[in-house]
Structures
1.
Amino acid sequence: MTVLTKNFRDIELRIAKLNLPQGDWATEARTDALKRLRSVGMPERRDEYWRFTRPDVFNQSGTPPATVSAMEKEIVFSQVDALQIVFDDGIFNAKESDTLALEYVSIDRLAESSSDTHWAKSLYGQLETNGQKPVPRPLGSLNTAFATDGILVLVKGSAPKPINIIYNQKEETSDVTLHHVVRLEAGAELTILESGPAAARLNNVIEVDVADGAVFHHIRTQNNTKDNHVATHIFARLGNASTFKSFTLTINGKLTRNECLIEITGDDAVAHVAGACVGDGNFHQDDTVFITHDAKGCESRQVFKKVLRNGAVGVFQGKILVKAGAQKTDGYQISQSLLLDGDSQFLAKPELEIYADDVICSHGSTSGAIDEDALFYLRSRGISEYEATNLLTLAFLAEAMDEIEDEDLREMLTRQLEGWLERHRG
Amino acid sequence: MLTINNLHVKLEEEDKPILKGVNLTVEAGKVHAIMGPNGSGKSTLSYVLSGKDGYEVTDGTVNLNGQDVFGMEPEERSSAGMFLAFQYPVEIPGVGNMTFLRTAVNAQRKSRGEEEMSAAEFLKIVRLRAKELKIDADMLKRPVNVGFSGGEKKRNEILQMAMLEPKICILDETDSGLDVDAMKLVADGVNSLRNSNRGFLVITHYQRLLDHIKPDYVHIMADGQIVKTGGPDLALEVENNGYKDLLAGVA
């Protein structure tokens, strides 16, 4: 077999200015992660899952600048009664954050958890390691090695309110690496909200371990300015009869790559991953999802909708892997784009790989323009072309938005979309 | 109110004339019916009046209360008082019927410089109108026309008409796909909207709709022209003898 020689020099260039944090319980995991990274190399365009998205900006040492919005930032989830945790350019803002205390929940910070027996030791970098097979996720390893902070959340019961992580970008060339670890013990429940452009360049990882019967919800808005570069990974492991539901809304950003890698290890578990994005012009948004069914009677669902305009590019790479023995799997996957002009592009790679014989799996992928008949129908009732197009655009996104169970949260994100449409007339 | 003068229309993409000099005036308070065989240009007339793409007006004018219709976008025509009840109402997944109705009502009000209708007022009126048309709360909540039966779609058209209170209502084969009961319900809805300020142009294939919506005038359209005009009796003549005899008589 020919081994493609990777340009391993890229790694040394990429990490030249980074320091591997030393002297705490995570050091071993960080060292291992760096080894993993050195064994696979940085992502390259010829890697199977980087064909549609240029990884260059994540490989270079310097950070391309991203404008810091001068406007007073609207905090998306400000109306939600939640425990608020604020990071400014990846640095914990104690003043703006609530006390890290919540009933049934213990919250520590990665940067300030020196105890050598921390519970997160058995997870940090572990789910990321599991997620490296069969496809390497080098940016995930890079993150585990060099993450400067993040939250470590251990949930032992039903959390009385969500954790709301608010990211602020302060500097034009901030380069941020954050790594969160969440462990829900049997029967526990938690919702995590995330919002904001975190940095000019962000590498964000969440490892989520959902034990038997536990329920985890994740709602995220990536409301970027036009220049942000963002790479995120969610590495999740699901136990028996557990539930994992994650939704991401991406607004603006020059390049966003969201990977979600889920390993279903317990029977009768449910995993839903969904996303909506709206992009205008210099916008490249990539959802890469890999769900492994390794247990019986589980349900997984991927729903992604992208609205693209003025040369914007949307990418979807979604895979459902059903291992031998994962009988009665119910897998569903849909990815659709609404191209508002002829310049925009949607690139999709839907995949099913099935080794069990008693499963239901389906996938679909479509690209389309605004339905002219519907547009005329609305206009014939006095609705302007602009307003009618907006109505139809929101209608297109509705199937993805409906994946957000909580009506209030869905409403908040829909308002974000309406705001975007208002700001991007014609 | 609505004056169509020497209207010539062809398909935009091919050199095929469809309307070849239509002349028609619909006065306020009157109901005009247009009947005619398949392919005579009846539906084209309704689309051209409401501003659908794909047609080219090669000659003639249409005037709505002194305004040149062809100088207006479809939404402007609507705000000016034109309403087309579609032969095939369009299904719009993801847009709630209620949201649609309210957006339409308020868009028209806004364009006329009127205040938007409050949510409470809107709800009150829409419930009242819906009840008259036997449209239940579920139909109002569902996405526009999605999963509606043929009859429900047509009733939904009449509900929109009732909410928008147009000056000129064009009904394009509103009876198609309706059973007798549904047709009666739709006709009752239309009749309740008849008044001295509103004109109707009812396009239909069959006379049976005209048993329920009594026209003041009946026009026969053939090969892109109105070839005969008469009173309600003309519709009966079509019913009894078919278009063939009638058209033979004209020629």
2.
Amino acid sequence: MDDEKIVGLFWQRDEKAISETSAKYGKLCGKIAYGILGNPQDSEEIVNSAYLRLWESIPPKKPNPFMPFLAKIVRNLALNRYKAEHTQKRYAGEFAVSLDELDECIPDKKSAPSDAGQIREALNAFLEEQKPESRKIFVLRYFYCESIEEIAVKTGYSEGKIKSLLFRLRQKLKTHLESEGISV
Amino acid sequence: MKNEALQDAVSMLDDKYIEEAQQPFPKRKIAPTAIKICLAAAACAATVCAVMFIPHGRAADILVFGKNPSASPVAVRSCDNEVGVIRAFAVEYLDIPVSITSSDKTVVGISGGTLYVEGDKENVYNADFELELFGNASLVWTVPLSDRSVEYELTAQTGKHSRVLTLSFDESENKWTVCEKSAG
């Protein structure tokens, strides 16, 4: 079923909307949540919460495209869970690793932190400048929290090449954020 | 945490990048590992075959009386003025200077007469022995010229390359000549 029809089901308050969403995007949602939390039970809970959040937000919203809207809900719910609980237990998900990697992108400048909107704009502008392939790899790693191995399989590159490509991207991002006057 | 501020920004990436990352990567023209292994094995086999069957190095250069017998027969003895009675009863021995030039080991054998390295008459080889040479050498091949129907051969083997010189009597020219029989 295409995304427009799924959104239509939500608008009609048809519970089939949830089953269709799950059939089409359940696996992707589960991967995003698992990438952040590294725990199958928690991930399943997050995905179910995401479906509930969808049900509550459509209508009034009419997301187009639908998939990124859903992916962001899952990611935000998982991140909130991570932040709430990571002091109590240590997660082994890819998110923890990718979080460490992003340390390298933080500008050295010591000044008042930029707001989230500024950082987002700078990040989007940075991605716009990148080649599509590099951009996709960056998003797979830091949005979808996919492992280096998974990305290597998807791209057909070696894990070493993915690692070095991501390293260069992080260095470039740091330079870009500094040039934009972003402070984190 | 500072890196979480970046992760939050990643959560708010433009929808188009989130969608783009889910598009499959263009198929790269990389041979699967199994094919790579097969190609490597084939290359190894080809190398082994080359080592075993392809002649190594190059054939020795041979000069007889300072001339190349592979270009044209070299006359080593003319019998134009020979008196019949002498030819019938005298046994004449002819010393044929053979110069061999090679960068590899060359094994020299003869089918008749004797062979020695110029200046070393102490060690004379006959048809039962082979002379091993390393590098260049000047040899003397001594052959009895009593029987014009007899052919003598000198073989020089360098690696897989073989050169065979034939000493025979040329009735039409009335001369003993050395020519190249074959080259391997």
3.
Amino acid sequence: MTAGVRWSYVCRLADIVPNTGVAAKIGTEQVAVFRVVDAQSGAEQVYAIGNRDPKSGAMVMARGLIGDVQGEPVVAAPVYKQHHALRDGRCLEDPALAVPVYPVRVFEGMVLVRNLPQSENP
Amino acid sequence: MSARRLVLVGHGMVGQRFLENIAQAKDRFAVTVLCEEPRPAYDRVNLTSYFSGKDAQALSLVPEGFFARTGFELRLGEGAAAIDRSARTVTTTRGAVLPYDVLVLATGSSPFVPPVPGREREHCYVYRTIEDLDAIKAAANVSKIGTVVGGGLLGLEAAKALKDLGLETHVVEFAPRLMAVQLDEFGGRLLRKKIEALGVRVHLSRNTTRIAAGESARHRMLFADGEHLETDVIVFSAGIRPRDELARAAGLALGPRGGIAIDGACRTSDPAIYAIGECAAWHGTIFGLVAPGYDMARVAAQQLLEAPAEFAGADLSTKLKLLGVEVASIGDAHGNTPGALSYFFSDERAGHYKKLVTSADGKRLLGAVLVGDAGDYGTLLAMVQNGLPLPAQPETLILPAHEGSKTQGLGSELLPAGATICSCNNVCKGALCAAIEAGATTLGALKKSTKASTSCGGCATLVKQILDAELRRRGVVVTNHLCEHFPHTRQELFHLVRLGGLKTFDEVLVKHGRGLGCDICKPAVASILAACWNEFVLAPKHASIQDTNDYYLANLQKDGTYSVVPRVPGGEITPEKLIVLGKVAQRFGLYTKITGGQRIDLFGARLEQLPLIWKDLIAAGFESGHAYGKAVRTVKSCVGSTWCRYGVQDSVGLAIKLEQRYRGIRSPHKLKLGVSGCTRECAEAQGKDVGVIATEKGWNLYVCGNGGMRPRHADLLAADLDEATLVRYIDRFLMFYIRTADRLQRTSVWLENLEGGIDYVRQVVCEDRLGIAAELEAEMQKLVDSYECEWKKALSNPETLKRFRHFVNTPAADPSIRFVTERGQIRPAQRQEKDAPAAAAAELVS
């Protein structure tokens, strides 16, 4: 399965309320895309991780609250509130609970996600 | 070095433990084990479970393949007949002569049978081995009545066995109370009461003089006082005697009351011979418990492994469940220490008895007795064993928690170390303290290392309190800062927001915080903003700081679906509205359940269904129930004077008024209210944050009650109020709490941490000591006036409704959500049900 690696259009950046996430269907996978805006500097960053909460098994990561832990941007899983780093998907409380990370970019206001995770088990 | 020849006489619990201890050096010993019973070591402590279903195999203590793996030789059904110390040989009951370099005696004990004439009659037994149990079992089949001689620990175990076998059960005890060694008079009396309530007859101060043929049963037991008891089966369980006969014959030194004398190394008077377990006497003391025996097994093994250890006696404290009754005895339970003081607490209704024995100066705990509830055993034992200082009022250790109001401001510090804090992951306070000691000094680290508060999270506040208290105790400066992003307490932040006129999270963050914020400060600030300005929580500027429940105005469940709870003020609902709820549930295939707050919860709603469900509900006149928010939830009521023969006021009417007044008000944590129409308190108002109970003259107002994890009876704030005053006081109380509490701090905990306690609340609310009463009322009135149904508002806003879809790039539903049918309704499919092959998955309802 090396074919089919491509960037998929998810939505307009403006469709994502700042500091929230949305879930996107990329092929058969569910991806959570977050738009993080730093209120102090106005700096903006988009992240994409797997939408499946590894602790509850529910497809809800996109609904988590965004924040930072010691400067590391994180999302708190909405069911049991464990924190996952948005940059690499690892769980800050339990290393066994990582989520996959997807390449994501914004091109002319469009949010694009590449459809294969960078690695299966980061 | 060739292997040393080691002979172990006796393969009971202690013998087996000894073997396990030396198994690590198995090549250094050639071990022969003599076991006179026909089966290897088994769990004698849990012998009774043999009657309640466990078979002999399940009781076995020998790991699969143990003897094959170690090369130790086990000779079953072969005991020791004699020891020749000069030749260093043991002669077995089968005539074999075994030479030894080291001999270990673990011969245990035998049950003591009082020398009563007639004790040799048939169907008279002892209670020690599986063979004894088999015989008792057989006898029970042809008997109706069973009697145990001995009301100690083992006797009561035996009584349970007889009861399990379906016999009418009696216990005959020579002493004037049960468990005379461990319990005092009150404790013994309560235990007797409880055991008799289970149908076991207890006969105390009965000295059996003779057993003869009975008239209505097999035997007649005759007592010294002239009374008698007829019974079919007799089990003697009147104590144990050490099996020291081999040692005695071999000329080894014995203890003054029998038992093979040993030193701290568990060595007998012959340095080549060790004795461990119940056959041994250390400084003349025989330990009839397994724990000291295990300790001796460890010490003896260490000696042989040249890693010397010392047996230094053992604590005879015990905790056990006898016939379902928890009993514990710790240290000097009888207060035999000169000058010892005692504290008692007895609750005959609940069947609890607790006693503390302290030193003459009241500073150290010497012993304790617990009957009915031995939950504090671990803490109290630790206090005795470690000589921990007692609190100034030692009685607080045994008084029930709701009395805690007398020791205002101690909160979590009063909890014993053994108190379970996180019931999901079974973490006790002691474990938390140990983790803090080991360096987990932040809430996150503590949760990670103990797993406390990582499942349901209900104990998070308590965990934080314990952390703060422990750090304070260690001299660490504790800040009540909301989180790493705000160097302020919630109370400070509340004032900063209000005085600064700050209207959004970003304003608050830029002005008073740092970083991006987090899942702690965002909902906390959202709650403060709502309490100050009451703007629509889903307005774009507020949306990103709402927890998922507030973000979707519904309660997230474990599978990613939501539940919906419409408001049913006071629990009063028309048949028409009930039918609507049923129809909506039918239309959307929802699971329905009645809540504790007298409402109906509809489960299994997908994100995209929520607006459709609410469209129907609102059309029928329902409004949001705010079950998703840290907000006023319900006002529970009883039916009141309108219908009830006993009601003195219209509790439903008042409940509806209160619920409509305070509905949806955002607060540090959820708020529950209750109104009862008379003192019978059917609405359980005293378990609510605000409880109102009708009196002949008006209403009594109670505050800071709680059900749930840490139940607390509410305190009476004011009595016999008219309705207008009642509402004013509730306005002030709620607003005062909303202003000053920490995040996720229920009113009960808030009160416990409030200096001055309920008296201070009364001064503020009823006497207006701070001069803020009018302000509090005005703030509350503003919230009441600005109320809007959040769902009605959400439905009217197409921008908001856009968010109610699972995927941003397709209208498809989340394919991972699956339900199965159970008891006629849906429930989330479990992981294995989801993974089931397609054929089986046909049963899945999607």
4.
Amino acid sequence: MLTYSQLRALERPPLRSAPTREFYLHLTGNMHQFIWGFDGKKWSESDMIRFQFGERVRINMVNDTMMSHPIHLHGMWMDLYAGGNLDTNPRKHTVNVQPAELLTVDITADAPGQWAFHCHLLYHMEAGMFRTVAVVRSLEGGSIDANA
Amino acid sequence: MPMRNAPLTFMTTVAVMLSGQAGAQDHTGMEQMPSTADMPMHKESAQTDDQQAERTPPGLDVPPLPAGITLDEVFGAADSEPPPHFGDPVMDEQIFGFVLFDQFEYRVTDDDAPDHLGWEADFWVGGDLNKFWWKSEGEAIFDGPNEGESENDFLYSRLVTPFWSLQTGVQYASEWTPDDYEDRWSYVLALQGVAPYQVELDGSALVSEEGDVTLEIEGEYDLRITQRLLLQPRLALGLAAQDIDERNLGAGITSGDLDLRLRYEITREFAPYIGARYHFLVGETEDLASAAGEKTEQWMVLAGVRFAF
């Protein structure tokens, strides 16, 4: 069986560097009640996730649910930490996070604006497993309510 | 399904990059970087990158800005709440409703007691945590005198843990014969949910208008023989906290129903079944019935359909 740890980029993609910031993001939900979200909140209850333009940010995703979730980021690549070094980590726009798994991605925030970040099981997305990612000039200032 | 993420796609159309602003970024964020000591492999991946040892922001390509939009405007829009006329990307606060007839069946008794129609149904409407819940159950003679009984619970239901809802409200119970109609209101406090191993449980404590306290407990389990064929054992018990003369109930466990149903799910929403029920009285209630010359147990064969919409 092939796993993510065997994936390698053939050539070093541009914009590779070590992360300057990292945070944890828990994938949370309840199959029985069909409640889905990140860090225990669905989209309408959440603030935007903010990236500073130009930063290299690492997200450690922890899947607390009993389902696999394909997590998709619009607008920027997620460089999957696959056990290698930064030269060979593969680029993904969607990463499958297995139940009880810790999965790490590095992102170069090279696209200003607001972007969708969500589980690509669309029923989960519609139930709230969705965040707005804002690539902003500075992380100073208050958080941004996604559902104003 | 149309993706209603207009605010996002709008911003993305003006997604621009300018290295000047990125170059102004300093390294002040590094002191706050959380420890990865518990994940040595992760730490290693960050440290082996000697090509970017300085951890400078990467050099970003700079595509031209669309006419009439400045980079400041793009950052301003990115750092503010979406305008009110932008639709929500996901509709995650919808109100849903559900109707489930868990039992809708014809029950044939093993003696000269009349056969009857029985039902047990749930109706709910609400959101993730808060629901209005209506539970209805009862039986009525199908072919013969107009006799029957029913219990209807009207409850506010609040999800208190991932698998358990606390419910409170009122129950309207009624019994009727061709020349009599009796009814009773009770206050209800219920706990409904799924126990480990997917055992569905529903317990209700009732306080009637007369102040009598009773308890109803139901448990059922779906044993999957195949993906479509299920065997469902079910046990319902009634308890009373005191003797209730007018209802012929004695304190303690009063009665029970032990059911077994074999159902075939043509779809999840439509599943015919056959089964059997053993109805029995217990304890003082049984003694009361025996003294009055009534039966204290009864077997029934049943057939019906479970459906939902």
